[in-house]
Write a structure and sequence with these properties.
Elements: E1 2-4, H1 7-19, H2 25-43, H3 45-49, E2 53-58, H4 62-76, E3 80-85, H5 93-102, E4 107-108, H6 111-116, E5 122-126, H7 138-147, E6 161-164, E7 195-199, H8 211-215, E8 217-221, E9 247-249, H9 269-273, E10 285-289, H10 297-308, E11 313-318, H11 323-327, E12 334-337, H12 341-347, E13 355-358, H13 366-375, E14 381-384, H14 387-390, H15 396-404, E15 413-415, H16 419-425, H17 427-434, H18 444-447, H19 455-466, E16 469-472, E17 476-485, E18 492-500, H20 515-528, H21 533-551, H22 559-562, H23 564-574
Parallel strand pairs: 2-3, 2-5, 3-4, 5-6, 6-7, 7-8, 9-18, 10-11, 10-13, 11-12, 13-14, 14-15, 15-16
Antiparallel strand pairs: 1-9, 16-17, 17-18
Helix pairs in contact: 2-4, 2-5, 4-5, 10-20, 12-13, 16-17, 17-19, 20-21
Length: 575
């Protein structure tokens, strides 16, 4: 798994390395500049043989210092280089030194200067980097719109745009472009890069929201910080063993050597799916609750997913009205009648039923059935989706209290909301994340953040409030599990995973009815097999995308479980 660092964590990592004396700021800048040049030559091999013209756009900070290094190295390779620099001279010593090493007077970094200049073969965006969190204004906003091709005058040269760290204007922690609802070629103050080169570790914004659309191809370059990195993440300066676990990305980026980050929990998702002996009861028994006649399809999809992912047994519990409908569709999945909470309690007298999945297509009665499932003795693992979440939209504390009452007993709880369900369960946190303008109340925690919360921060707050693992679905799925608080500081500790279906793992075919129901079944099946709530959620998210990619265009939800054997075989054979 690849570790993801926020902008603050990355700056803290660099500062620790410099404070230790292992590196200097100038040496890191030189390594970063060289890494960008090497990435350019790898992405466009023809440039290595035939140097071209380049316009390098340098901002006033260290990102601009990286730009001056890139400009110098390109010139040394025979390129014709024009540097455009911010009117404000760099205040950082290393950036000043890099500018001095370039030599000569750069052109002003303005819209007018670029607009009248002849087009270059390559543009290097080293204006803002990872530090920007508010919308650019004035001439810089006009300049960025021009770079994005949205200046209204035909300026559109980003097919050969290289971004240093992140495209300027993109929030490196949130993946959004401050000031606009979404990037588009008509009004976006951020260039769409063909290639983005970041250093040491990817940043959340490379995968969240609009980041992938703006970054083009993402390359993560090693600049020699391995010895100073924190193996458990976090940006504080406490000893490594005391730092909270940071966010990780699954699957790992191919550009990042496996030797860079080693953790005891770095088990490839495919490995968790392999059965190693035992019998059907060894691998657990999942109970999926169904809605009434005409609405049982979602539960049947979840049940099929749980069985395919390796649960030893799966039972579908349906109201009497839906029994015949389900019986005509099920073979390996067993069927029981359940007309309400009393029937569910009777079913759960069989203690072999170790995991409950409810919500998909559940309809009326979802609230009472959810409370009964959470109150069951002994405590089961529970996956809550769809109607099991919507049923608590008017009183989410009732759900959280029911989860809290299980504290200290076995059985994790996993919530799998989409964005709308998340907003109904956690309205204040959602407002803090989306920056709502007062339509919903903002919590004290949300108001302390400016800019608004990132998606990982929002999911972390939700997981702590719910006392459960929360998987917030989307192309940029975020999973968080609360672990408690640090004894020394009282700060909350959690484990976070980002699973993004982007770049070479894009899977747009998952935008189909029932795909989320199959995901819930995957999670339930993995919980039944003994995985923790977080392991089950992140493994299921990975498998979900892999199944979609294995099938390709034309995918419908029923196809997802049937691709599981192929995916497991392909990935375990490769290992």
């Amino acid at each position: 798994m690849t570790e993801i660092l926020t902008g603050a964590e990355m700056r803290a990592l660099e500062q620790r390395a410099m404070d230790s004396g292992a590196v200097t700021g100038r040496s890191l800048m030189e390594r970063a500049g060289l890494a960008v040049v090497e990435a350019i030559e790898a992405h466009w091999p023809e440039y290595k043989e035939t140097p071209q013209s380049a316009s390098v756009l340098c901002g006033p900070g260290n990102n601009g210092g990286d730009g001056f290094v890139i400009a110098r190295l390109l010139r040394e390779r025979g390129w014709t280089v024009t540097v455009y620099a911010a009117k404000t001279a760099p205040t950082a010593r290393d950036a000043l030194a890099a500018r001095a090493a370039w030599g000569g007077d750069p052109e002003p970094l303005t819209y007018e200067a670029l607009h009248r200049a002849p087009d270059a073969a390559l543009y290097v965006d080293a204006i803002f980097g990872i530090g920007l969190s508010r919308p650019p204004v004035g001439d810089l906003a006009d300049l960025l719109r021009y770079l994005a091709g949205s200046g209204g005058d035909g300026g559109y040269f980003q097919p050969r745009m290289v971004a240093v760290d992140v495209p300027s204007g993109l929030d490196a922690d949130r993946g959004c472009v401050p000031g606009v609802p979404a990037p588009n070629p008509f009004d976006c103050p951020a260039p769409f890069a063909a290639l983005t080169v970041t250093f040491d570790s990817p940043k959340p914004g490379h995968f969240l929201a609009d980041g992938p659309a703006l970054c083009g191809k993402l390359v993560v370059a090693d600049i020699g910080l391995q010895d100073d990195r924190c193996t458990t993440g976090g940006a504080d300066t406490a000893p490594k063993t005391q730092r909270p676990i940071g966010m990780r990305l699954i699957p790992p980026l191919a550009d990042v050597p496996d030797s860079r980050i080693k953790r005891p929990f770095d088990i490839q998702p495919a490995t968790r799916l392999v059965k190693r002996g035992g019998h059907k009861f060894t691998h657990g028994h999942v109970l999926v609750l169904s809605g009434p006649m005409g609405r049982s399809g979602a539960a049947r999809l979840a049940a099929r997913g749980a069985l395919r992912v390796g649960a030893g047994l799966v039972t579908l519990a349906a109201p009497g009205s839906a029994l015949m409908e389900c019986a005509t569709q099920l073979t390996a999945i067993m069927l029981r009648r359940c007309d309400g909470p009393e029937d569910l309690q009777a079913l759960l007298s069989d203690q072999r039923l170790g995991t409950i999945c409810l919500g998909p297509g559940l309809g009326e009665g979802a609230r009472a059935l959810t409370l009964a499932a959470l109150a069951a003795e002994p405590a089961r693992s529970v996956v809550l989706d769809a109607d099991a979440l919507t049923a608590f939209a008017q009183a989410p504390d009732a759900l959280f209290d029911a989860i809290d009452a299980r504290l200290g007993r076995a059985g994790p709880v996993v919530l799998t909301p989409h964005t709308g369900e998340f907003a109904r369960l956690f309205p204040d946190i959602y407002a803090g994340w989306q920056g709502a303008d007062g339509a919903m109340p903002r919590s004290e925690a949300a108001e302390q953040h400016s800019p608004p919360l990132s998606k990982p921060e929002a999911v972390a707050q939700a997981a702590r409030r719910a006392g459960a693992t929360v998987l917030l679905k989307g192309p940029d799925t975020v999973i968080c599990t609360p672990l408690g608080t640090q004894r020394e500081t009282g700060k909350p500790v959690d484990v976070r995973t980002l699973h993004a279906a982007c770049y070479d793992r894009c899977a747009p075919w998952l935008a189909t009815a029932g795909a989320g129901d199959v995901l819930s079944g995957f999670i339930a099946g993995l919980l039944a097999r003994g995985l923790s709530g977080h392991q089950a959620a992140e493994t299921a998210a990975w498998l979900h995308v892999e199944c979609a990619r294995a099938f390709g265009p034309g995918l419908i939800a029923e196809d997802l479980p049937e691709m599981v054997p192929r995916v497991i075989s392909q990935h375990t054979d490769a290992d």
